Each structure stands twice: as C-alpha cells, then as structure tokens.
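Before any further analysis, backbone shapes were mapped to integers, which produced the following:

***
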Amino acid sequence: MKRKIIASLLVLAMAGSLLAGCGNKASDSGSSDGSKSSKSSASELKGDSSEKYYMCVPISGVEYWYPVFQGMKEAANALGVQAYYMGTPEWDSSAQADVFNQIMALDPTGILLHPTDGDAFVDPINSAIADDVQVVTFAADSPDSNRTAYVTSDNNKEGSTAAKEVAEEIGGKGSILVMRNPGQTNHETRDDAFISYINENYPDIKIYEENSGQNADATYTAVMTTYQKDANLKAVFTPEASSAVGAAQAGLEIGNGDQALVCACCDTSEEILDLLKAGQFFSAIAPDQYLQGYMGMLDLFFAAHNEVLEPMNGRADAGENLWQSPFMDNGLSIVTADNADDFYLDAYAEKLGYKDSEEILEPLEEPEGCGFGDGSGEKYYMCVPISGVEYWYPVMQGMKDAAKALDVSAYYMGTPEWDASAQADVFSQIMALDPTGILVHPTTAEAFVDPINSAIADDVQIVTFAADAPDSERTAYVTSDNTKEGNRAAQEIGEALGGEGSVLVMRNPGQTNHENRDNAFIAYMEENYPDITIYEENSGQDADATYSAVMTTYQKDANLKAVFTPEASSAVGAAQAGLEIGGGSEQALLCACCDTSEEVLDLLKADQFFFAIAPDQYLQGYMSMLNCYFAAHNEILHPMNGREAAGENLWQTPYMDNSLSIVTKDNADCFYLDSYAKNIGLSGADQLIEPYEAK
C-alpha cells in the first residue's frame, strides 16, 4: 500500500520538547464559488498565543498521560496556543478538584480533563463552562455535566475484545477474576463489557469480581485469595495497567516461576511491556493516547472558537456551544510480545528527540501556530445518493468551511436516485479525478466495502458519514448516535401515548443508520412500554409508500396512535395519512422522524407533526473533512503505537458523534435551508453545494 507517512520524523526542539507537524501553510485566497469568505479562513484555525489550555489528571506520574499530553501539545503548537500539564500525586477526586480549581485561577481558555469520578466533577465542570472556560473529558467521562466533548477509545469494545481473546486462550472453561475500580466510568464500562461478553458467549466460564483501586498489591492479594478458594482460576482481567502487575506477580507465584494465569489488561506501562516480552503476560489493549490528546485539543479549540463555525440549528439562539461531540473514539491496538517494543515510553520520547520521557510533560509556552501541514492542490469530494436531498446541503457547507480553513478544495457529487450501483459508478468517477479523499454516505454497507478498500489501496482516504461501511478499511465514521436518536424518539412517543396504543415503525432495509434508529426505537419501546403494540413496514424512503402503509395499518388497528420514520422523506406520507384519518383538519397521529426537510418543518409549525430529531449536519461535514485531511497527512502525527511499522494509517476514528437536536414547533425556524443559506451570506440553498476551489 502506498503511504504518505514520513519514515524518518523531522524533529523540532522547542523549550526542551519536540513539537512536530509544523510547516509552511498556504494563505487563504478567498472563495471562488460566491460563498462567504469572511468565515473559516485558514488563519482562523489559529488561536491567540496568550490562550492557555491545561490538562488535568489524577496520579500525574502515570505513564498513560505522557503521550496524551504529547498529542495535545502538537495540536496546540499547530493552533498557536499554549499547553500545560497539571495533576495530583494520588487517586483522589477531592485532590483533583483542588487542582482543577487551581487551574481555574490561572485564567485558562480550556481544560482537558480526566475526571477521577464523573459525579464529583459535575459541579466543577458546569461552573467552568458558566465562566466561559471550555472543558473536554478524555478516557473517563462526566456525562451528566455540560462538558463539550468526550474523547476516548471504545471502552465496550476494549472489554469485549479482551474477553474474546482471554476466553479463547483458556479454551472456554475455567474461572476468571475481574478487578473493579468503582466510580471510574471507563474502567467500569470495560469490566461490564468483559463480563457481559463472557456470560453471553462462554457459559462454562465462572466470573469472580474484586476491587483493586488500581493497586498492584490489592490485586495480588485478590488473585491469591481467589485461587485458594478456586484452583480452577485460569485468568485475570484488569481494566488498567497499574494493578495488572499484581496479577502477573500472583500468577508467577502460583506457577512457581512460570506464568500460571492468562493475564490481560487495558492500557500499558513499562512493567506490562517487560512482562509481555518475557512471556509472562498475555495481552494489553492500548488506546491511542496520542490521538486522544490531539483530538481533545482540537475539541477545546473549536469549543472556544465558535466564530469559525456556522451550523444550521438553534444552538446559537439558545446560548449553547456550537461545537458538540458527545463521543469521539480515538481507536485502539492489541499489544502482545510481537509489537511491545513500539509502546515503550522512553523509546518513544527518544524517537521524538527528547532527553527522557519526563520532558514530554514540559509546558508549551511559545507556540508556533504553524498549521497542519501543506494541503496545496488537494481535492476532497463528497459522494452521496439522491444528490438533491436537503440533508446533504449543510453537511457540504461544513465540509467546505473546514476545507477553506485547511486551504484545500471541496466538491460535491451524487446520484439522482437511491441506488447502490449508481452511487458506486459516481464513486468510480470521483476516483478518476485524482482525489486526495472522499466523504461518502454509502447507500448500503456491503456494496461499498470493495470500492472503499480499493480507494484506500490507491492512497485515497475515505471517511463515511451518517451511514457506515464498518467492514471496510475506511479511516473514520462520523454520525450522530443512531441508538440515542431511536431511544429518544421512543421515549417521547411512549410518554405522550401514556404507554398505550399502537405505533407503526417504517423500515429502510440495508441502510445501516436507519436500521440502527429503528432497532433502538423498537428495543426501547419493548423494554419500557410493553403495552404498546409495534407494527413494522418498509418504505424505501418513499412518502407514498409510507402513506399507504399507515392507512393499511389503521384499517386493521384503529388504535394506531403514532408513526416513526428513521428519515424525513417518508415522514411526510405519515403526516398526510394522519390528517386524512383526522378528517382533513386535525392530525390524528403523533408523527416523528429523524432528520428534517422543509416539508417536515412546515408541518411542525402547523402543529401537524410531533417532532423531528436532527443530527448536526454542518458539524458532520466539518468533522468529516478534518478526519479526511488528517488521514491524508500522517506526516504531522507522532503516535506511540505500532501502526506506522504495520503500514497502517496513523489517524483512526472508528466513530465520532456529531450530536443532535430535538426540533419542535418552537425552534423549527432555525432549520429552514433557504433561511440558513441567507444567514451565512449565500443567495440561495443551491450555493451550499457549489464547490470550493482553493488557489
């Protein structure tokens, strides 16, 4: 595979630390498409050199934080802002809250926070946000707070991956001890996923649970105690690296010098790597810490610089931050004896030009503001089905604004119909135009696996948005949380119906995001509203088909009270049927959908539609463009893992959530496409999909 990764890293010594990824940046030359030129120019992806961003962590000497801060510093240097590292000597939420307050007294612009306890940090985070200090959480979350974004690896995937590997290694039988760290959300999620996977797939494996508090001695004691009562103990899983050393020590003692247990953990440390290389540890699941810090810094910057963003929603009117990402997955690696050398912190520091790893934590006080590499002459394309669908327009505007900021060109291409073969033809046409990257909304996942993989093999970067091809080698997937969309719609309808009646759910088979929304809706209803009857019909995103399905369902069940469609096109047919059932003037059904259109907005304002769930399409395009660009510019990235050696792309984002809004009669005006176009200085909505050509 052709790569754009620079084999020998260019090092830049600065205040005793390396800050790579800087280079000459072409200046913004304005727009060639008649769209606004006063917003999102290349210079706007640069903050004021007086801006200060802090990382706040517990147990500041833990090796995990070092590459995270390196990623944060490199992104900060490119953006021209300062970066600092602060933490506590112990794992104590009160002590970390004190450090957080100390940072607040230093006039920060933003804080990248790993909270010891999500609940304990709700008030500190909310207080900071109220004081216009942006907060992004990483590797552990405070979901009930007003934090702007959360960056982490997929903790569920980490736990289930570890469970599968361990269970297979012990032959699906025996006992496993799982160590707990109560109150640490990411650790709890990993443990829960591990246990759930074992219980579901390996009924002959017995699970024990003990608390460790991330302490190796406590883990050693727990392992020995468990083994004394059950000599069939075969494995130990810890959700972090610190306590895992105790598990390995106990296993060696049980085996009289040989490792008697299959020991696995999440995260790594020098001790774990040594154990792996010595054949005394099974495997570790390592999040991409560097990307965690890099993405976290980008999130903080955009949260602090809403002026470069122009989304189509009601957040500005509501006084909300325009940058929202409830979940960003920074990817992960499985570390074994074969690739352990790529994860040693001191070797990583030396590779970057530091004297030792402690220099990684030195602050960045004199940033360069050197930008994100040189994208001169690069062309990025959006490839969609049914190119006239309104949904794509603000997505393309977001893509263009990000492209302007990065000084690259952006183009829009699509099909007139919903047809996978036709879209594959358009994809092939784009490939003939020598693109650097393609943002694609695949009609069906299966149909695009081969085209995407072929493009990747030709060094064309692919990012999927709003619908995915998960079995392909695409670099990133940007979407709203389809499960959350379906759950929220079901909750609203279930409550409005008082938990009784019948609901029709419209299906679009083969469209992964629509299927996920529908499945989540139905699952939520079945779990929480057992007295509601669910009907299902296919629509193919067609309003007439939906109208017919609603009328047919009502004829056989006059207790039909609501209709849910996973997209906006077919929803109009549901509303039409509801009006007809209601005698022509009153809406007899609660109609709800995901996405919006002018027709749905008109229905909302006329009280003929219940609500719509709208993904932030603009951020979807903006985030997708950023992902595609970074996938094409590995030369500015310096993660601590084995991807470069394996010939893999250094930018991996399996899932990025662009967030959503609930659209009702009260805020519908904010979602009209023509009004949005005029608000950002365009003559009409069609200009949203005109190309941006950088000069």
